[in-house]
Design goal:
The protein contains seven helices and nine strands; from the N terminus they run E-E-E-E-E-H-H-H-H-H-E-H-E-E-H-E. By secondary structure, the chain is of the alpha+beta class. It folds into three domains: 72 residues, Nucleic acid-binding proteins (OB fold (Dihydrolipoamide Acetyltransferase, E2P)); 83 residues, Translation initiation factor 2, subunit 1, domain 2 (DNA polymerase, domain 1); 83 residues, Alpha-Beta Plaits, CATH 3.30.70. A five-stranded mixed beta barrel has the order 1-2-3-5-4. Strands 7-8-6-9 form a four-stranded antiparallel sheet, with helices on one face. Helix 2 crosses helix 3, helix 3 crosses helix 5 and helix 6 packs antiparallel against helix 7. The two termini are 40 Å apart.
């Protein structure tokens, strides 16, 4: 796993594997920092009084902990298990899995580019983490925007392979929002006007907009985008286009956003 430092920072969440359990606490190998381990004092294992520590942790168990203190000189990392909630635990485990996958994707990149993996880590992997936050985030951004590496000043023979591997393997996260559009026209060519309004709605914006017939005069609008902000903006643009078209043709339109 590509890291910019050999130790985590205070306040970070880390993934660890319990190596040894003692009556006073537990030692955990830091999975993201090879060769490093941390200590979970019994007071930081669980909320409330812990009578038997093995009721809460055991050797080989995968845990997510918060870093309380780091002493690089002594090689000590103090951890807390109880200060991590379920939501944080799930998100951190997913992030850890993503970074493991990113390492495998980087190996594919280096093979295609004809660069030894360790050389790639030294030459540009650190720059990717510094620029995008994580290696997986770099792959996500490259999948969404093939020009991103160039825009960030990251150059080299490896960039073409990096973008290719990203686009082949990364499925970008999306959100979908919906609403109900009512379109009415009493004009002789009203059917054609309504059809034009619906086509205009689908073609507006840069993302995925679908309009489905429900029951006259109602049509379900469905927008898929990378995030809610983009989806809401796209939905508004589509609705505005449909309303403008039908009003110019003498009809009326209304829209209600679904929860």
């Amino acid at each position: 796993m590509v890291r910019l430092s050999d130790y985590p920072d205070e306040g970070d969440l880390v993934v660890g594997t319990i190596k040894e359990v003692k009556p006073f606490g537990a030692f955990a190998a830091l999975d993201e920092f090879p060769g490093k381990e941390g200590f979970i004092h019994i007071a930081e294992v669980a909320s409330g009084w812990v009578k038997y520590i093995r009721d809460h942790v055991r050797e080989g168990q995968k845990v997510v902990c918060k870093v309380l203190q780091v002493n690089v000189q002594k090689g000590h990392v103090d951890l807390s298990l109880k200060q991590v909630n379920d939501h944080q635990r799930r998100e951190k485990i997913q992030e850890w899995k993503n970074e493991q996958r990113a390492d495998k994707l980087l190996q594919i990149v280096t093979t295609r580019a004809g660069i030894p993996f360790e050389e790639a880590v030294r030459a540009f992997a650190g720059d990717l983490v510094s620029t995008y936050g994580t290696l997986y985030a770099a792959f996500e951004e490259a999948a969404a925007n093939p020009k991103t590496l160039e825009a960030e000043g990251l150059k080299g023979a490896w960039t073409k392979a990096f973008v290719e591997v990203a686009q082949e393997n990364i499925v970008l996260p999306t959100v979908t929002i919906t609403g109900m559009l009512e379109v009415v026209s009493a004009a002789p060519d009203g059917v054609e006007s309504i059809k034009s309004a619906l086509i205009g709605a689908e073609q507006a914006g840069t993302g995925s907009v679908k309009v489905r017939y429900v029951a006259a005069p109602k049509y379900r609008m469905e927008v898929t985008a990378p995030d809610y902000k983009a989806a809401e903006a796209m939905l508004k643009e589509s609705v505005d286009v449909a309303v403008e078209i039908i009003k110019k043709a003498g009809g009326t339109a209304s829209f209600e956003r679904s929860e």
